[in-house]
Amino acid sequence: MITRIREVRRARGMTLDDVAKACEPPTTAQTIGRLETGTRTVSVGWLNRIAKALGVDAQDLVERGESPELKVAAVLGPGGAGAPRRTAIIVPPRVDDGQIGITVASSIGDYRAGDEIWCMSIEPASYGQALNRDVLIPRPAGRFMFGRLINRDDERLQILPLERGARQQVVANPPWLAVATRLVRSL
Question: Which pTM value belongs to this model?
């Protein structure tokens, strides 16, 4: 079986050590390197562990002749656009459990009409991880609030709405919130 572990790892901007530490249970960079190069046989178990560490599906790590891939043609940096130093690909995003989406109907804050915002739902114990991030919070009667989480105080969250000049809002005991993790924008 021919794998694309190296290509996907590089597309994610991770080192061998990053992947090794992200595996559950953690392993060594040397083991990941051997699995990448084929000097060690890749089992389904290893594919699943590495895929989870890279945030992709296991099928993304197996070379399938007919599968389309998005090749990187240029890298944009401070000096402008230039050719990549080595062959690279972009791994398309996959939907994970707990992800939800928001569509933007009219421009507000940094978001433009037509944008799609991918969010990851989190439980109350993890709200601290969302500080200074844009979040979606459920409200009574099927309503929602979207804005920047600026403070967490016991069971209350302080949200700064995206509207210019808006005052902060306080939400008590939301059952969950979703953190914005990816912006999809058509040009």
Answer: 0.62
